Amino acid sequence: MKPLIIWLSKMSCLALLSLGAAQALWPQTVVLPFDATRAALILLAIHVAELLFVFKHVRLYTGPLAVSVLLTLLFGLLHWKPLADAAAGAALPPKESHD
User: Fold this and answer.
1) Residue 53: inside a domain
2) How far is the C-alpha of 50 from the C-alpha of 81, rounded, in Å?
3) Is 97 within a domain?
4) How far is CA 57 from CA 50, 62, 75, 76, in A?
5) Residue 48 domain-assigned?
6) Rounded to two decimals, what is the model's pTM?
7) pLDDT at 1 over 80
8) 26 — phi, psi (to 5°)?
9) What residue numbers bound the domain in which 17 lies?
10) pLDDT in tens, 17-70
11) How far is CA 84 from CA 9, 59, 72, 96, in A?
């Protein structure tokens, strides 16, 4: 994916999770035309499921495992998919060119 799209997607995840937390903590102050808390919980549940199913890719992160888990909970496949792609690319033999 293109870097701008990835960055926008990550910011969208953070915005939804932040709005959901704010609406849950201050329901009278944060009035939105949708239930941001429910949407944030659904997104978080999806990311927890992702974490359980793709933990082998989450472990490929070069930093601490706790940071990788947190990034997966925040961003889902936007975090672990590049790690999986890099591992798959490193495992594949180089393609032969037929000139």
Assistant:
1) yes
2) 11
3) no
4) 10, 11, 14, 11
5) yes
6) 0.81
7) no
8) -130, 70
9) 3-91
10) 999 999 999 999 888 888 999 999 999 999 999 999 999 999 999 999 999 999
11) 18, 10, 13, 23
Q: Would residue 99 count as lying in a domain?
A: no
Element (H, E) at 69: helix 65-75
Token duo for residue 45? 């549940």
Nearest Cα neighbor of 86 from 57, 66, 64, 56 is: 57
How many domains are contained in the chain?
1
Token pair for 83: 């790690």
Structure tokens at 46: 């999806």
Question: Looking at this protein, which amino acid is placed at residue 39?
Answer: A
Query: CA angle 47-25-77, nearest 5°?
Result: 15
